[in-house]
Design a protein that fits this description.
62 residues, mainly alpha, 0% strand
């Protein structure tokens, strides 16, 4: 989750997006836990299929 490689971040995001389809509650809890530490790219890829408004809750806290 903290890797600097763009390819690793995209891979993690894609994996989480796929898992979200089958285990939405667990993946959403995981994303809430990591949203302030991981890269924006991971959040962007993993929440791609979510409703636009719903996706906003996974943004980093200011």
């Amino acid at each position: 989750m903290l890797d600097d490689s763009e390819y690793v971040q995209k891979g993690i995001g894609t994996l989480l997006r796929g898992l979200w389809k089958k285990y939405p509650a667990q993946i959403e809890d995981f994303l809430m836990e990591w949203k302030d530490q991981c890269s924006r790219l991971i959040i962007q890829y993993s929440t791609e299929k979510m409703d636009k408004e719903y996706r906003k809750k996974f943004r980093k806290s200011k």
